[in-house]
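From the pipeline queue, job 12 of 40. The input is one protein chain; the requested action is below.

Action: predict structure.
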Amino acid sequence: MSTVQDFNNRIAETHSGRTEIQDFVFKTSYAFPSADVLLPAPMAVSILGQLTLVATATDFKLVKPADGFKHVRYPDSFRATITQLVNSGALALNRSFVNFDEINKRCAAIRPGVNNIVQLLVGHPDNTARENEQAIERYLPNQINSLSRTVEACLEKAKETDRVFNQLLELTMEIHEACTATQGYNESRIREAELRKAFLAKEQEAAEEMKRIGEDAVKQAREDYAKSQTLFNQAVKSMPTAGQIAGLNLLDMGQGILHAVTFGAVRRPGASSGGTTSGQPPPQQRVTPYDPGFQKASMLRELAESLHILLTCGPNSTPSWNAVKASDGTGCIDIRVKFEEVLASIKRGDPKNGRATAKAATLAERGIEYSQKLEDIVPPGDEMQIARLTGAVSAWRDSVLAFASEADLHSASSPISSSVQAFIPAPNMGGGSSAELAVRGAQYNLAVTSAQLNASRENSRFTSEKLMQVTGQLGDIMAQVVKIDIKKQNWEEIMAILLKAIDFLCELKRYLNNLVHFFNSVNNLVCISMREAADAFISIVKDAARIEDSAGHNHERGTRQIGGVTLDAWARQAIYNHALSVAKISKVVENISDMYVTLYDGNVHPGVNMLLGMGKLVGSKDQAAIAAAGTEIQGWAQGASDRIIQLVSERAQANERDIEKRIAELEKSLGGILPRSSRIEEIVRTVEKEEVKKTGQELVATIEERPVYKRMNPFL
């Protein structure tokens, strides 16, 4: 028994409220490793700076989630969104410093407030009992209210810091999700651009061939026109003149006289010697011009069959989603893009085209609609929705096949060229004088060459117009190719930015998650541990002082009623324990907030200022300045992290020295009753054994005195 008593006496010598608080702080210091907490801060600032520099390249719109944005305020601008993130991060870091500085200062006032309350309850030895009661009545309510306000203020600041960083993490996650969705969207747009470019390349090749044929046709038409012009000029020159006509008349008169002398009869000029009947021209055949819309029928039929196959090639005539989402040129996106290019090709054609062109355009538009609906379905999709889409596509496919069959028949029966040569009736050469016959022949020749000249002129005009039309279509196609190249280049640039942004956002989430974990722990320490300890202390103080809240009959607010104070041993010990608990936790919170404020003020705050200054580079084209800013903030972050590690290491070493000093104090105090080689663990084990032995002996004595305990519990 002497060993136990001596041990208790020596423990009392080396144990006080101050040392108990100190020991508690030593134990809990390992629960909040400050290095792990504050190291992410400089790196988070650096990443926000890198995101600012990434946003300088270009701007674009973010893909909107299905349920909309909850935190992003500027979804139409990537730059504005990154600026929002940077500003939110800077404000959160600054707010954390302000709040923790306030928590640190308020926690430093909690222990004196608790001591004041305890001393007020215990009373001053120089006062009488009545004076102590009057002091309690006068000061205790305000002391309790002051302590409650201090704890509530710490609670609000811890909650605010925790909320701000949770919101910052949620904003970062939302931006990350939006950037990832935008990346997927851009990948689809790049794929579409490649498909459109391939389609336009084939169309450009066909248009260039048509242009070559058109140029040859124009050249031939111009040559024919020149020949016709020559023949016409020759026909004009071959018309008999007045002298030639008079000579022919004199010749006819001489022949007539000679005929009369020879045969005794005079043939009248212009008499027919056996007329010829000129035949009527055959009826002119009218040919319907060929509608270019029929040229698209084959492509529409192929695409319609492909879309129908995608919808029905799976099990039980359901869609095969692997085929629908394929990117090998046979997927739904490929079919939709080809439909869009067919429609664009139709619209680039002659606006005067007829019914077939309009029909082809309508069928292509329906194909785009159905392809987009299938593309938007998320596998496995709704059965009723898929069934309705399959039925609609089947009916539309039948229309496409009917149109394609009509196009096949039309292309087989209708010539592409519909030019018909004008019919010129031959002159009647059966009678008349030589002059008349010469004039008639010359007139006929002139009429034929004139018709040929007009036909050549019309053919030349027609081929020139067709060549101009094909040339215009070729120019449109080439412009579309250039436009697609520009869009694709822009999308690829955006893709490069998104990949960098996504990488930085992933790192930022990791660092912010560590900070949020720290602030969650501090929030729990303040809101649960310290608040409950303070509430328990205040509650027992009210019970001991018999403070009651009662509503007065003539007052709107409750009035404090205080009775006499009589503290027994249990009450004194309970008040002391609760006061000590509040002091312990508040000291831990004070140390944590002091560490945070110290490290932030000297190592994080300069980086936040640097970060805010980088906003001037958004939209800048000065690549040298951008690169220098990135290198500068990265170098600062590394240096700040190294300084934080050094400061935390120094504090940890100081704590270790204090712990060793405390152990030395205990060993020195207990060295007089135990061998010098004993350690604290051995002392504790010895005391525990003696206490267990003592308890066992008391239990045996109690059972012997009261056997009923043995009957109630046979294990005793």
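Job complete. Strands lie at 548-551, 558-561.
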